[in-house]
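Dear colleagues,

For the upcoming journal club I promised to circulate an example of a predicted protein-ligand complex. I picked one with zinc ion because it came up in last month's discussion. The inputs are reproduced below in full, followed by the predicted structure.
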Amino acid sequence: MHEYSIATEIYDSAIRVAEENHATSVSAIELEIGELAMINCDQLTFCIESIVKGTLFEGAELKIAEIKAEIRCGCGYTGKAADDSMRSYLICPQCNAPAELIRGREIIIREITICT
Ligand SMILES: [Zn+2]
């Protein structure tokens, strides 16, 4: 399962940060997930909750914020892509040229709240 490997990566990064900061427990984890990251947030939550059982992260509140996709085009346009369908996400609504995706595929740990 795709979400399970993502959850493992998130956990590995988060536990490293928590240990570096001498955490005794973790009360919250905030994630930012791009809408094009192809992540099912419910499944991701489920995977993370099963991974953290018995760790510093057990019982931590998991918050997930979705990041809207954003593009940048050579014509100077920055913002939402032309259409919501996956195929045309990267088309500039101003000039119809292919544009560069600048946000929307990221999987970021924004904040970890620890107790020391
Ligand atoms: Zn354009």
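Two points we might discuss: The pocket of zinc ion is lined by residues 73, 75, 77, 92, 94-95, 97, 99 (CB under 6 Å). The beta strands are 25-34, 61-67, 70-72, 78-79, 100-103, 107-115.

See you all on Thursday,
B. R.
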